[in-house]
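S.,

As promised, the S-adenosylmethionine run. Input:
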Amino acid sequence: MIEYDKDAIVPPYITEYLRAKTVHNDEFMHSLEKYAEENSVPIVEPETARFLSVMCRTVKPKKILEVGCAIGYSSILMAQATDDDCEIATLECNEDMVRIARENIKTSGYAGKISVIEADAKDYLSYIDDDEVFDMIFLDGPKAHYIYMLDECVRLLKKGGVLISDNVLYKGMTADDNHVVRRKITIVKRLRKYIDMLMEHKELETSLLPLGDGVTISVKK
Ligand SMILES: C[S@@+](CC[C@H](N)C(=O)[O-])C[C@H]1O[C@@H](n2cnc3c(N)ncnc32)[C@H](O)[C@@H]1O
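Predicted complex:
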């Protein structure tokens, strides 16, 4: 029996059903999921993983930017769901994660598609030239810094490009004061501001989904 987080935003019986229906048989990805669980590395939840994969097959991006690589799980997932000529750049500031991600990506056979860039995303995004436009950006790095990264993400996104941001409902804390854990208040305030920024952004149209830990999908108009 899988143990679900009691603070999850979706009722456990729904999550159980969704996960039972979105199983996969990829042994290598299973090994990464196991590693992540055993070593407390946060990776995308199974429902979010499937959503990301479907979005890749829908948008058919040629260039993807990811903020927050961790062990390379979601970047490998996106590599699996895109054409051979798609390039994925993934930013990660933790040296150990960068090393593990590079090993995993090499083993996955997608080293030719995925570049792991060791950098603090908040600084690095501003160094990317305007002509480096991306078809898709997956924001899954430091939640408290999404607000500082949004302008750069919009600048780097092609017209019609898609920005996907993970964990925006943050175990429900973003939506309701009664769920807020005191030590998380700064992150929660910043995520609330981030959602407002997305919703009010003139260049974006955004849908907020109660998927996994809360996901927004924004398209650049
Ligand atoms: C939720 S994990 C990413 C999970 C990954 N996208 C997946 O699903 O497989 C977030 C990662 O962002 C990294 N991170 C945190 N702050 C960062 C920053 N300022 N710049 C780059 N990476 C950062 C963390 O080290 C962590 O590995």
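The first helix runs from residue 12 to 21. The mean pLDDT is 95.

- D.
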